[in-house]
Request: fold
Amino acid sequence: MANVELRPGHKDLEELGFFEKYWVSIQPFLLSRGYELRSRYHPGWTPSWLQPGGKRIFSCDDSLPTVSQGSKMIDATRTNDGAKVVIRQVPTKTDELPILLLLSSPSLQADPRNCTVPILDIIILPGNDDTALIVMPMLRDFGNLTFRRVGEVVEMFEQVVHFLAFLHEQNISHMDFCWFNIMMDGSRVVPKGWHMANQFSHDGISIGEFEWVDRWSVRPVKYYVIDFELSQRMISKDNPRLFVGSWGQDRSVPEMSFTTPSDPFKVDVYQLGNVIKKLMTVSVLREPRFGVSLTRSKNYIGLDILKPLVDAMTNPDPLERLTAEESSKQFSIFRKKCSKRVMKGRIWRNEAPIPPLSSVERFFVKYLGYNPTN
Reply:
């Protein structure tokens, strides 16, 4: 056995978690369909760091569990071309799969506003009528790489606000149009790729060697919306079915109530507006202790031009709030007024717990190609 330095928690990595075992059980079937899981999820797996001559544990790819959302998603490699993909479980008794199929139809895919995540394959599981698998490209969280210019945020906002209007035209309410469901095609931003278990590592193992370029230099960057698990298709968006309770990642929506029904289309607008608001509003940098005042800072400095539209999308009164169509039109008016100089304007991340760049570091970013992740 290799001489392994065990630290707290290392033993846990030697055993598969409950949800990981599901993927091991279907690994041979997925391989027959052209999708290879990492060695950790092969039947009979033995940790490579425990084998004779094995490397240190955190130098081994199979020490990285990447099952996320319980057992719902896992990373894989498409065997015919080596493309990195994500495989996700979808219940067959909800509206998610029919909605995805509709949005992936040739007629709707032809609409340039359609930002539905590409569905590369649908896999029907033998002997399982309750669950299907969808295969998607491996995308990045839209916000984990720093925005460097106003135009980068505007480009993202433009795509998703027009998509929301498009979605509502199909009488579909997403019902979770929130931060972690907006993704980015990072293939040109991170040319060397990334690991699903650690998006700031090319292979999941190497630390401190992450290379990326700012979005402005490779624009346009494509954004996608994922996770239609809660989505509903209505007869008409103008007379929608109303819902009580709270749903989605963002439950700060003012009208959400367990007694008074809410219009899910107006909730979608609020949730998207709040995504942008989180980029530009203050965040608490230090909790108050012993009477010490709060230290606050904007997440990004330089996005105030978006405030009027964002405020209208997050109006606490849903009757006064913009619709998705109105938001899309207002954005188009705003965009026409944005000069190249405005779009090229620098913005700076100032969000806890990420330390802001110093004035010297900002100089290096602007003029010397320095590109840290903060």
